[in-house]
Design goal:
alpha+beta; nine-stranded mixed sheet; 14 helices
Length: about 375
């Protein structure tokens, strides 16, 4: 029996949206996960990295997905527990909903023993205080507008003087115990990392270009802060030495890489103009496929890391699985014995030229894993 295009379109309705959402929810709740290294970040129960990706959608969806300006847009908040290898949050919103709002609304999901690593988009002092009350830990860059006071004192830190001290003593990394915020005065460890001169000059060039457009002047205090990478945390030094802070924060980039796979390989943002119900069904269907692919990749990553001490590249694996979509479909449909045969074929395929490559001047994920396993052993 043939079905017209209009007939197919009519089948995308409230019921179909509810059905696809239920399948997506089931995929999240029953996600098969595998720990790459059991004692990775052993001091914490979960290590949560989170960020959002946004993309423009056709104007006919403006009623449902508000964007910036006159554009319609979709936002996806994604949080991943990198210690235990599972998704802790994957929420579709409109693009107008900012990261700070999400951070405030999801604070109840934080558990004792969590380590939360986020970028400046989620920076808010009251939130860090809530993390401490929940007996959780945080690691973040320091907002340049945030006041920094010497511990037990009312005087603020002069970053210009700090730079002079570090250059005179030839130190590129120091740790200070400070309080931050003009009123709240939250006690934290401040890790100060000196950046190379070329990076400092590039930062100044960018901010002065931005300020020139706005008619503002770059302050000396801001210029002094540009000399450093500044991180704050409430994790004790024994669990996160100052030498390891930068590499721990770099883990957050795994989320950025994931968004890159979603867009460049899975084309999650590439949907034609259509009615709301059809759009939502297709978007959730793509996310379901991404979750299935992630489960396969992460389980194979664990297997090969244990057996070969090599890590599979998510990007290369995503491309292979996306090209061989029919194979994944057959695995889901077939009985377990036949599925195992197909999974073994995928494993064999992954073992050929699907490894993460070490890039010059960049910290590799394996180095980070080995570092935070060694800290645990010590």
């Amino acid at each position: 029996m043939s079905i017209s295009k209009q007939g197919i379109d009519n089948r995308f309705n409230k019921a179909s949206v509810a059905f696809v959402k239920s399948i997506f929810k089931d995929c999240l709740e029953n996600e098969l996960h595998k720990v790459i290294v059991p004692d990775f970040f052993a001091a914490f129960k979960r290590v949560l990295i989170k960020d959002a990706t946004r993309f423009v959608v056709p104007d006919r969806l403006k009623e449902f997905f508000k964007g910036t300006g006159s554009k319609s847009g979709v936002g996806i908040q994604y949080e991943y527990d990198i210690k235990n290898g599972r998704t802790s949050d994957l929420t579709i919103t409109d693009a107008k909903r900012c990261d700070l709002v999400d951070a405030k609304e999801t604070i109840s999901k934080v558990l004792p023993g969590d380590l939360i690593i986020r970028d400046l988009g989620y920076f808010i002092l009251s939130l860090f205080s809530e993390f401490k009350k929940a007996k959780a830990f945080f690691l973040s860059r320091l907002n340049v507008k945030c006041y920094v006071f010497k511990e037990y004192e009312q005087t603020t830190i002069s970053f210009k003087e700090l730079y002079n001290q570090m250059t005179q003593t030839k130190k590129s990394l120091v740790e200070l115990y400070v309080t931050i915020g003009s009123q709240e005065r939250l006690p934290v460890r401040l890790i100060v990392q000196l950046v190379p001169e070329d990076i400092y000059k590039e930062r100044i060039r960018k901010i002065e270009k931005q300020n020139k457009k706005k008619g503002h002047k770059t302050t000396d205090g801001y210029k002094a802060r540009c000399r450093f990478n500044l991180f704050i945390t409430n994790v004790e030094e024994k669990d996160l030495p100052k030498e390891a802070v930068y590499k721990a924060y770099k883990i957050r980039w795994q989320i950025e890489l994931m968004f890159k796979h979603w867009k460049s390989t899975c084309r999650i943002h590439n949907l034609q103009p259509m009615k709301y119900e059809r759009f939502v069904c297709l978007l959730y269907a793509k996310l379901i496929l991404i979750l299935i692919n992630l489960q396969l990749i992460r389980n194979f990553q664990s297997y090969y890391f244990h057996n070969k001490n090599k890590l599979l590249s998510e990007d290369k694996c995503f491309k292979t699985l996306t090209k061989g979509f029919e194979r994944i479909l057959q695995i889901l449909k077939q009985e377990s014995s036949k599925s195992i045969i197909e999974l073994n074929k995928i494993a064999d395929l992954f073992s050929k030229e699907h490894w993460k490559e070490k890039r010059k001047g960049r910290v590799s994920y394996i180095e980070i894993i080995e570092l935070f396993t060694c800290i645990c052993d010590n």
